[in-house]
Amino acid sequence: MSGFDSDSENKPLPTMKELNASPSSSSTSQKEHYQTQEIEKLLRMSVKSKQYIVKKNSSQLIKSDAWSKFGFPAKQRSENVYDILPGFVSCSDCFRTLVYDGSTKYMIKHKCVVAAAAATELVVNTGTMDNYLLKKPVIQKQDKEKMKEKFVIWSCSSIRPFSIIEDPGFIDILNEAIKIGQKYSGPIDVQELVVSAKTVGNNVAVMAEKYRNLLKPILEKQADDGCLCIAPDLWTDKHRKIAYIGITCTFVTDKFNLETIDLCCAEYDEHDKTGTSVYL
């Protein structure tokens, strides 16, 4: 917004009817004297009758955003013909009227102008965010029903616990499968993605060694900083009555994120299964 605008910007352009108006009627309007509060009252009283209106500044050289709300108060001379009341500007929303000397520095501080500018900025920022944020597609109801049916049939026919559907690992596999499917334009054979049980078993040791190498420097750093907590977890299989021991590491990263890592889980064959024996 500019605090001071040129005269060519601030002067309203006369209409053809105003140019053809008789000098006598124009001079009569010029002789009338008004106060700002009086003009505000006349504008409010003329909302329906249109005897007094706020005319937009029709100049092509407007630079200030204040003119989006302000205009020139005008009095009706005849049908669709209005004489501007010189020396004043009025808000088209609340009819607030100010003395006008060619500067917009008081107009831009008016509450209606400030609110309009804030709303415009919000719309612009929202539109910009929409350009960068991808909108998630809405899953159709029939697709959800189809997946529900598949889950029920799988759980019952393979005698799997219902909770397996909510397992984080299972959800991760589904997400990865969908991402891979999006890379191809046509249908793909799922069997090409699913590996055999033997392949999974053969790769457990390989993957374990890979993640050990990744975790080693992380755990060493946490231990050196005195931030590593290692806790044993002793539990028993109720069906086969076999005791197991697990070791869990817990620490907080430099970004204040709590991390928990299960290092191992093995059969605990010691006869003394008390807490003292476990820690020793």
Q: How large is the radius of gyration? A: 39 Å
* Number of structural domains: 3
- The fraction of residues assigned to DSSP E strands is 15-25%
How many helical stretches?
Answer: 9
* Helix and strand composition category: alpha+beta
Strand count, sense and barrel status of the largest sheet are:
5 strands, antiparallel
Report on the architecture of this protein.
The protein is of the alpha+beta class. The protein folds into three domains: 7-129, no CATH class; 136-190; 218-280, no CATH class. 40% of the residues lie in helices and 19% in strands. The protein contains nine helices and eight strands. The strands form two sheets. Strands 1, 2, 3, 4 and 5 form a five-stranded antiparallel beta sheet that branches. The longest helix has 28 residues, at 197-224. It starts with 6 loop residues before the first helix and ends with a helix.
